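Running low. Any example?
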Amino acid sequence: MKKTVSIRVAWYGLITFLVILPVLTIFPFIWAKAHSILLKNALLAKYQYTHKLESAMRSELERLLTLLENKSDPIAYTLQKDRDKELLETLLKVIILREKAVQTLLIVSPEGKILTGADRHSALQGNMLKSQILRASMPKTFDDDIAKITTPVKWKNFIGTTFRHNGLTGFYISVPIDSKNSPSNILLAVIDVRKFWNKIKPAVPTDNTTTYLIDSNGVLLASPDSSIFKKGDSLTDLKIVSKFVSGEKFLDSETYTGLSGEPVFGIVLKATYLGWGIVSEVEESLLMAPIRNLLLGVTVICLLVVIIIGWAGFWFTRKMLSSITVLSDSFHRASIGDYSRTGTVSSVTEINQLVTGFNNMVEYIQERERELSRSEQKIKAIITSVGEGIISINAAGVITFVNHELCKIFGYKEDELLRQNVEILMPKNFREAHGRAMNRHLKTGKTNILGKKLELEGLHKDGTSFPIEIKIEKTFIESGSFFFTAAIENISKRKKAEETVEKSKNSLMKAQQIASLGSWDWNIEKSSLAWSDEVYRIFGLEPQKLEATYEAFRSFIHFDDRDKVTQAIEEALNKKEDYSIEHRIVLKDGTEKIVHEQGEVTFNDSGVPVMMFGTVQDITGRKAAEKELRRLSTAIEQSAETIVITDKEGIVEYVNPAFEKLTGYSGEEALGNTPNILKSGKHDNAFYEELWQTIKAGKVWTGNFFNKKKDGTLFEESATISPVFGSDGEIVNFVAAKRDITREWMLQKAREYFTIVTSHELNTPLTHLQLVKTLLRGFAQKYADDKELGDITIAMEKSYDELSKIVETTAMLAMLSSPQKEQSFSTVYLRMETDAVIDKIRSAVEEEKRDVAIMSDIESIPIGVEIRGKQDMVSEAIKNILSNAVKYTPDKGRVFINGYCENENAVIMIEDEGIGIPEEKSDDVFEPYYSLENVALHSTGKYKFKGGGMGLGLTISKMIVDYHGGGISILSREGAGTRVTITFPLKKKTG
């Protein structure tokens, strides 16, 4: 027997539990959680303060770098021109006086030699120090650090190398001083760590935080004035510093003995660029005191609230339970048949109402029991006679009633079903779901099946399943319990008929959808029209969403075809014959289709048309295929290339007229033979075996043939042979498309021979001219007063340069025309080559006194980016395109050079504001010797507007880029400038 407990004990126990539970569990948990959150928030504020310090340090470093970089150009200019030394000295003094953290400024050569400079002491006196004095004043580690300090020679800034010397703790910053004709020098600044730190720290105010600075070895660089440690002391005995030095993560929730000697919480951040540690400490007592006070106050308040609630609960429960106990005894007596009234009186209104309700209830129970007995007899008689199966079950799922019809449906007798679980009438696969649904309903009272007709499966006594239709109702009885009643009908015959109809309907709809063929019927008498779903789809509509009318149909007909369709329908009605017509329709989105319509009319006994049935089929695809087939057939027949189609065994099934014209064989002679009739004997058996292995494997073969015509003449063909697959995936045919390249091959050989010979033969007179040029230059220097001799020398040098350029270009063309030999490639630093070309073109533009600005932005290509190729060729390609952009840009215009890396390619984009290229000429610019203007009208200057040239610049550039496996494209519009994009594949990294 299940143990029970009195309501008094239960309530007092519950209230006690609810009072004690928060005190023992919830309050400690909340206290710990709140303590953790408050501590994290407090530490987060310290972290944010430290992070702001780090950001301020990074910003100050970047500002110093920018300052030095901005001063590098005037310094470079002064060093290059070797003048205005006073200006250089003044500039260095101004920088030192302006920036208190800068202790010393030096200009250092790439070898580490100090060229000139100043320190703060000399700047305050207005003097510049000699290099030997400056070098003597530098720390002993200066020579060891030269390799790092001179990093900017490689176009990289340098920050770091902390040192201590003569009481100064400092670090170096160096930036490149660019020069066009010699390696870069370096502008080196020595930064005083103390002044650098004192400038940063006041920018980030705090209250009770101690902040100090350490280097990567844990040595103190800067600290508060009150610290017992001095600058230069090692702090590795501090836990936070030792973990920073070893690279371990320090938990900010840990406490340790800090700089002040007291327990502290600490935050350490690594400074960007310098690698120093910024340490912020706050004493544990200062951080934890507010948190403890806050938590203590909250705890006291919560305990008071719990005590008050507990006392009120005990008082109210005691008041309530005295009356409820008496009422409970009265209900117990009623449950065993004692319906005597109760005289309980309570001060609680609801309990008095319960007493009154109880007394009224017991007065009517006996009368209702008699009424119920009579009603049960009547209902049983009615249920027994209905045509549906009726079944009742209780809340446990046990069958309490069945009628005769239900026994007939399931094949049981009445006594075989009563007191059985209802699952006896369910297939096994339904029982688990029924059990879950029943349990859920008993627990929650929720269900979605009551009062609805459902189609389920029933289980016959013989073990067969069959479809049933069931409607379930729930009935409550006086005792508070309930039972379920269900009406069940065997729908096997109906389901079979529905399945047959649905299957036929689905088959018809599927067939219509596959064939894109819709059906319609038009009731002429009632003026009603019905479309199948496929008709809606053909007209671009959602099925059955629009009312089908003749007017709606007519609105879709192409305007030019409406009269034709109307006439066809009228003739069908008047002449009593079927009609068939093709016409166009236009959908709502403007799409045009071609449909084929057929209609059949039915008439009544008086010969009046009453119905019209028909179909509409979308034949747009078929019409397009027919048109495409005609177009392809015409293209093949008229193609200048020979087309040969064979079966999978190689027997010729078709040749086009071009084949007959080229080979001399007629179509009749070729059909039924194999392509062997063209064999020249120039290829061995291995050549043909490799070809057949390729195409029989389902791949495309591409190559050249030496074949023989009918008259014995040899010719060369470029061929592509492709397999054709059938619907089963097997090869059914081979198609060969071939082009006669005999003349092209001969011209290519002649061109290569001419280029090589020309390049070789021109070298001899060029050598002689170089000797003459040298002699003339000597005479011109000797007789400097002879202006005519000087002019002859200049003319001679220009002629030599032009001829040398022609020879170089010819030699490069010869190399580019030969097969690519990647083994001769080396590493090319694209950024450096591009910078060099830009500097050279800028110098040439200045010499020609052109007013064209060259804007460079190639910093997105890193200095160290490498490609594989020939350095001189890469430079030549970029130079040719950039010089073209300058030549075709009028004065006051601009040329932009951008560079970046994308995927596995380096990209150089050159864009000008020039005259542009007409659209009809855009495909010709890569042709040799092509020029947009009349060559005779070109300017004499190479970089002047529309300046002269050989007409080979873009041709050679394209050949060079192709030679390196890259790509080149042109986007231009007349009068709106030109953009040329070059891509080179990046060097693949190994290892």
Residues 662 and 709 are 7 Å apart (CA to CA). Confidence is low (pLDDT under 50) at residues 934-939. The longest helix spans residues 7-81.
